[in-house]
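Write out a record, focusing on structure:
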Amino acid sequence: MSSLLDIHGHVAPVRTSEEVQDVLPEAKALPPRIAGDKNLMRVLNESALDSSDVVSASSLDLPAIMTSERMRRRSDISRIRPLDSPPAVEPETIELPVIKEHIQGSSTAVRVPDISFREDGLAIPAGRQAGDPEIAPSFPSSLAPSVLLAEDETSSMAPAISASQKAVHRRKSLVHFLALCWCVSCMGWNDGTTGPMLPRIQEHYHIGFAVVSLLFVFNTIGFISGAFANIYLTDRFGMGKVLIMGAICQIAAYAILSSGGPFPLMCAAFVSIGFGLSLQNAHANGFVASLKRHSHTKMGFLHGSYGLGALLSPLVATQFAKSSTHWHFHYFISAGLYIFNLFLQWAVFRGRPQQEILEEEGESGATENAVDSNKYKQVLGLKEVHMLSMFSLIYVGVEVTMGGWSVTYILERRNGNSSTGYIASGFFGGLMLGRILLMWLNKKIGERLALFLYALLAIFIEVTVWVVPSLIENAIAVSFVGLLLGPMYPILMNHSTTILPRWLLTACMGYIAAVGLAGSAILPFVTGVLASKFGIASLQPFVVSMMSTLIVIWAIIPRARFVPT
């Protein structure tokens, strides 16, 4: 047997005709399945196989591994490039992600086999042997190998978050949210105080309805100035520091009110209250609206906390209002609550901007100063902002008018006593329950339709307060009106996130909330002017007309649509 060099440079034996004749009997003794394969027989006769392989084979049985080895060598020989061909370029190895599942439509899902990847980038279907490279992954006929993954798996190239990190994000998110709920509950405490205190303030300073309504006018000045200052202050200092500024304004105002000074000094304190409330309300609403997880639910609980503060405040204020000499001591309690609020906001947010706080709890969004152009012009140039602001103005005005002047109405028209102040607690208690208990109905029938339903029912019940001369019926009816009015403000804030640009959301929220707080001063002031001229009986027709206006404005506000982020 002679030898020659093969294409790999190795010495390969060359069989003589006599050696081939020696192999043929063994081939004839092969099993029928193998012997009938002409191609295999030709390989046995013609291929340059090592003689040791043939000698080791039994004349009665050819092992399957030997057959597989010969076929592999034949396949390798067919892929050998000529010696004079240019060197092959190494293919680029691309590691593909693990394909888990592809969902088509909303109701049908196509399962794609799990595929793992070797270090050389070769895909191996799960459940098959990794040592067989000739078995390629199979895909459904409707899918290409490059299956489009779910959006939530490919929208962000950030590394996967561990379970422990998710738990940290949830804990921080809860702490941030509870801090804002406390801040908003202090706002409710402030608004719930005014109603029971109005009769005592009138008696102490010997003033009428029109003059005492100046408190609401000066409150409006603070709200509006805070709305415009909020845009600049937010870009300059960030959310955390602006919340601290608002709390400081509140503490200074309550320190003035607790002294029981002259009426002009009380008016100046209400300017500071309005300014501080405007800053805090804007950022509380803007932050929750910017969340991508459970923002609608959290918005309901956020404003439910407002109702909780407004529920508790009249219970305390009524006790102080009974005293003709120490009624202003109630504002010491208010100052103490805001001192605690000051330390709480600093401990939780540390004066940081909103974007940094969102990232701490695993959220992301547009930065507070993402747009360098004039934000005032951008906010005021959106017609949707003005529609939402008008709704907010009338709604918050009706809310505070009901909570403030209803006590005076019951005292004069239904012959109430000093305990009538608790009716304000019933109204704000209904407000709180409505914002929490009716969330399921909002989701079931849709928030837009739900608001129309609540407004119509609230008008019907308010008419009964107007025409039914019963103190008990009026007190119960006022509570149910609060229940129906409660969900309207969270619905408004949720809807604003669907029609306003994300990068202007905090600025727009500040403007809408500030105009709404201005309504909490304007409408009660108008009510006082009407009461001084026509009597307190004018309260009910005025409130019913304002509720009807809410329906008209809500009908012309644009529906939800896609907004850029």
